[in-house]
Design a protein that fits this description.
The structure is a single chain. The protein is α+β, with helices and mostly antiparallel strands. Helices cover about 25% and strands about 40% of the residues. It is built from one helix and six strands. The protein has one helix spanning about 95-125, and strands at about 20-30, 35-45, 50-60, 65-70, 75-80, 85-90. It has a six-stranded antiparallel sheet, covered by helices on one side. This is DUF7718 domain-containing protein. Pfam families: DUF7718. It comes from Curtobacterium oceanosedimentum.
């Protein structure tokens, strides 16, 4: 965990083990060439969203998919891992209901990150 979250309010919520959950996952393409994607992974237990990870992936120069950012809810806290290694706070998790409540906010932040990558890539291609 990054030092950037050391002083953040972290909740006491801990999700059930993922083996005890049902998983739903899908990719969302962010650009027409499908070189930037968002990988969504949601974990439910007893009908409730209990855990998630939302990952921005981009095709690298050698054709491999590389993680560029990730929002998850580990350690009782929803947070965004940035490309440069820093971590920014989204929300503390005190109860299971907080996971569902924070999912949309985390999704929005990850989507904004992916759009920024797409737009920066477009400018580089235009300048070339």
């Amino acid at each position: 965990m990054s030092a950037g979250l050391d002083h953040q309010d972290r909740g006491q919520y801990r999700p059930p083990h993922r083996d005890d959950c049902s998983e739903r996952s899908w990719f969302q393409s962010v650009d027409d060439a499908d070189t930037i994607r968002i990988d969504h992974r949601l974990f439910r237990c007893n009908g409730k969203l209990v855990d998630f990870a939302i990952v921005v992936l981009a095709v690298d120069l050698d054709g491999r998919w590389v993680e560029r950012a990730r929002a998850d809810c580990c350690h009782g806290h929803v947070h965004l891992h940035h490309t440069n290694g820093s971590v920014s706070s989204i929300a503390p998790l005190h109860r299971v209901e907080d996971v569902d409540r924070s999912f949309e906010q985390a999704s929005d932040r990850v989507f904004e990150y992916a759009i920024t990558i797409r737009d920066m890539k477009g400018r580089r291609e235009h300048d070339a």
